[in-house]
Amino acid sequence: MWKPVKKSLAVFLTVLLMFTAAGCGGRNENKPEAVTVAVAENQELETTLELSGVLVPVRTVDISSKASGKVVSLGFNVGSEVKAGDVLIQLDTDALNAQLAQAEAGLQSAEAAAESVRSQASLARINLDAAQKLFDRTKVLYQSGAVSQSQMDDVTDKLNIAQNQFENASGPAQDQAQAAISTARANIRNLQVQIDNTTIRSPLNGIVTVQSVNVGQSISPNVSVISIVDTSTLKLKTTISQDLLPLLSVGREMEITIDSYPDSKFKGNISSIGPIAVSTGEVFPLEISINNSGSLTAGLSARASLNTTVRGIMVPAAAVAQGGGESYVFVINENTAVKRVVKVGLKNDKTAQILKGVSAGERVAVTNVGSLSDNKTVTVN
């Protein structure tokens, strides 16, 4: 008999407690929240602007060969420091050296032929002078009747032959000989260029980051085989919102902190501000150049900071709450807290700049912000 009574009594007490809690909860829900307020004012804010990003090389060069051939030696490996002009790869030159020797022999032959043509031209000149003198003497005798017409015709023919021989030796023959020399020299220059192209040199000071070929392998032209990065200057790549653009300019100095070296400070200068927003929205690309003494490497995360002063609508930092991916404040209208989504600019430990959502002169809750809800009744202390 006592078991059913006890069970009924337990149920009754449970229901009673639930109603009591609900009643108390309702009374607490309707109870005004005491808050302290502050007036949004148009004033100056001194703060530190911080930008975060990653250090990247100022320049990366992918190197390919202009010639095809087998690799006979490698000057450096991945991670090696190189100087401009250092030999990175040497290709086999045996075949090209043989062709060069043959071309040089061809040049010697062409020069010898040209010398023979010049000698022939000199001899033709002598023969022409002799034929001209004979013609002149015979002509005088012919005019005086001392020689016959056939004799005169004979010396005239000899003069014409000598003239033709000289013109050929001093004109087309010499041009042909000179052309042969020019062709031989062009072949030599072409082979020398090909041989030069078998030696692949670094175009800059930097560090080898990629090497995709080994000794004994053959490579083809225009295929990247080595990559070198110039780390003498590094760039911190980041983005800034359009609201911060007026605060920054190319050349402005910023203090750099490297996450891996928190106790060290570096100096950098803004080298570029993108004129067009990136695809993600109202942010612009920005690069800060940092002279590298050798202790920094690409890929490190870093932060750039700048002390600055801005003017605008300011509220206490404690008035701004976060939730649902948004920033908001509670504007106090008489005795009601109205939730207002805002866009926050710069801030420091005490004050936050409101770019959108609050006007100067409006009152915002500063205390018990986490306990407020939209249209919550409040009492102002």
TrEMBL record:
Coiled-coil region: 93-120, 174-201
Multidrug resistance protein MdtA-like barrel-sandwich hybrid domain mapped to chain residues: 59-227
Domain YknX-like C-terminal permuted SH3-like: 313-380
Domain CusB-like beta-barrel: 238-308
Signal peptide interval: 1-24
GO molecular function per UniProt: efflux transmembrane transporter activity
InterPro entries with a match to the protein in the record: Beta-barrel_RND_2, MdtA-like_BSH, RND_pump_MFP, YknX-like_C
CC annotations in GO: efflux pump complex
Record keywords: Coiled coil, Signal
Gene3D superfamilies: 2.40.30.170, 2.40.420.20, 2.40.50.100, Helix hairpin bin
Homology family: Belongs to the membrane fusion protein (MFP) (TC 8.A.1) family.
This protein's name: Macrolide export protein MacA
Organism whose genome encodes this protein: Pelotomaculum propionicicum
Phylogenetic lineage: Bacteria, Bacillati, Bacillota, Clostridia, Eubacteriales
